[in-house]
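> tool_call: predict_assembly(chains=two)
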Amino acid sequence: MRTYTILIAENDEDERFFMQQGFDEASGLFAVEALVKNGDALLEWLTLNAPRRPDVILSDLNMPGKNGYDVINELKIQPLYASIPVIITSTSPIQSTIERCLTLGAADYIVKPETFIEYGPFVRELHQRIRTKQLIPDAEEPS
Amino acid sequence: MTVTPVFDEEQVCTGYTCLLRDSTAVLEETIRLRDNEERYRLMVEGVKEYAIFLLDTGGHIVTWNEGAQRTKGYSPDEIVGKHFSIFYTAEDLEDGKPARELKIAIATGKYEEQGWRVKKDGSVFWANVVITALFNERNEHIGFSKVTRDLTETKYQQEALRESEERYRSLVEQVGDYGIFMMDEKGRIVSWNTGAQRINGYTTEEILGKYFSIFYTEEDILNGKPDFELRTARTVGTYKEEGWRLRKDGSKFWANVVITALYSSEKVFMGFSKVTRDLTERKQAELALRESYERFRSLAHTLKKTNTELAYANQELEQFTSIVSHDLQEPIRTIKSYLQLLDLKLDAEQYTDLKAYISRTIHAANRMRELIQNLLHYSQLSRGEILEVTMPTSELIEQALQNLKTSIERTQPEIRIECEVDAVKGDRVQLVQLLQNLLSNALKFTNAEKPLLTIRCTEVEGHVKFSVSDNGIGIAPGDYAKVFDMFRRLHTQKEYPGTGIGLTICKKIVDRHRGTIWLESEAGQGTTFHFTLYEKPSEHFV
C-alpha cells in the first residue's frame, strides 16, 4: 500500500497533538510533512519548501487568518499547486457547508472524529477514500 | 284740319273756315303709349317663371302669358274667358275662397298668399299668389291682375329641411347618454336634451336662457374657466377637456366636454354647441384602480421589506447554525477527548500528564462559556429595542475609555480626541460598547512601543462620522471583509487572544443605527475604523 505525503493545517493545538498520534498509529499510510496552524502557515510552508509538494493537503475549515475556504481558493489559482487535492475536515456535518467546499474545489470533505482519540480510524478512512476516489493519480505512484 | 262752311243770314254759304291743328304731339304720344303697352305686353307674355294674367271685374280670365301656360298647363285659347276659380281645389271652392280673395283685393288693393292650386291635369302645385285690383284713372274698378309663382320645389325643399331639422332635433333631444345643447354667442343655453337633463339635473324650462357657467365649480368660475373655454372654441373651433362639473343638486360629476363654435352657411357666427358625457363612473374606476394600485404597491413594499427581514433573519440563523456546529462544537470535542484520554490513562494505570489533561479540559470549558456568553450578548443586540437618546459626544468617548481603564493603564497609549460634534443620538449602552470594542482592538493589535489612538468625530453630509485609528499591526486588504464575521479571527488565540466577536458586535450596532462601518489599513502601519450613524433612510431595514 502506498504511503502518501500529507500536509495538514489545523489551528487547535490539542487537536494537532491528537492528529499526530492518529497518523503515527496508522503507520505506513501517510507521511506527515508538517502540521501547521492555519492557511497562512500552509501557504508559507509550500513556498518555503518548493518545489517539494505533498501528495495531498488536509485542512481544517475553521481557522483564524486564512481558513479552509481560503486554502481551496488560493491553491486552485496557483498552477504549481492547483493539482494537489485539498481535503477539508471539520466538525460540521452540515450538508450546505460540505457542498460549498466541494463546489469551491475541495477534493473531499471528511467530518472530524467525535473525539481526538478516534483519529486512528479517521486516518485509515482518509486513506481509503483517497484510493477509492482516486484522488491521487497512480502515475505518481513510486515504482 | 277742320273745314267748316260759313253761312250768312240767308243761309248762303259764303265761304269756308279752315282750322288747322297741329296734332303731331298727340299722335306721337299715342304711338308712344301703344309702343309702351306693346312692350309690356310682350314682356309679360314672355315671362316664363311667373303666370301673369288679367281678370275682368267678374274674375274671368282676359289675358294669358307664357308663364301661365307653363305653370298651369292651359293654352290661351283654352283659358281666356274662363273663370279663375278653375285653378282652385274643391275644398277651396267649397269654402268660397276665390270670391273672398277678389273681395279682399278690392278692399285692400291686393291679396297675397301661398297655397295649393290646381293645374290643367288635375295635379296640385304650391303657389305664391298675388292678386291686385286694377282701377282706371277715374278710380273705377276695371279688373284684376294675378301673378302666380309655382313654389312647389321650394316648398318641398323647405319641407325636407324642416323635416330633417325636426328629425335631428328629436334625435338629439332623445339622446340620453350625452348632454347635447346649444348656446348663443354669449354662452346662454338655447336648447336642452334628455341626456343633459339626466346628467346635469335641470329640466328644459329651468335651464333655457341660463348661462352655461352654472355647471362650473366656484373655483373654475373665479379662474374664468367658462369664458376661457368659449374663447378657445371661438378661436380654434372646438374646446375639449375632462373635468369636474356641477349637477343641479350641487354634486360633482366627471365630464368629458366638447364645445364647438357654430357658423351658418354664410360663415356667420351663431353660437356654440356643447356635448357633455358623464364619465364619473370611469373616473371613479380609474381612481379605484389607482388606489388599488397604490395599495398593492404599498403591500408589495411591505412584502419586500418583510422578505428582506426574513432573508436577514435566515442569514442570521444560518450564521448561528454554522457557529453552533463549528465554534461551539470544538470546545466540547476537546473536553470529551481529554476526558476519554483520562479514562484510558486511568485504566492503564498511567498517571503521568493527568493534571495537564484536566487543565486542558478546564481551559476548553472556559472557552465554551466565553463563546456562549458572546453569542447571547450578540443575539440580545439583534432583538432589543434601540433606546434612542441624545448625549454629549465627549461623555460617550469618556465612558468607553473608562471601561478600558485597565488595559489603557497597562499599555500607556497616547490618546488624541478630535471632536467636532457636540452631541450624538443613539442607544447609549450600544454606542459605548461600539467605541469600546474599536478602542480595545486598537490597543490589542499593536506591536508599537508607544501605542497611538486617535478618536475623531465629524459631521459629514448631515450625519455623524466617527473614526478610530491606531498605529498597530494593520490588516491585509484581502481580510477587510472577514473581520466583521462572527468568531472569525485573523490570528491565533496565542498571538492575540479573543473570540472574534468584537467587530461583529460593532457591525451589528452600526447596522441598527442605520450607519455604515468600514476600515482603512496598511499592514504594519495601523488601522482606521470609520462608522457613520443615521446615514440611511429609516425604512432601510438593518
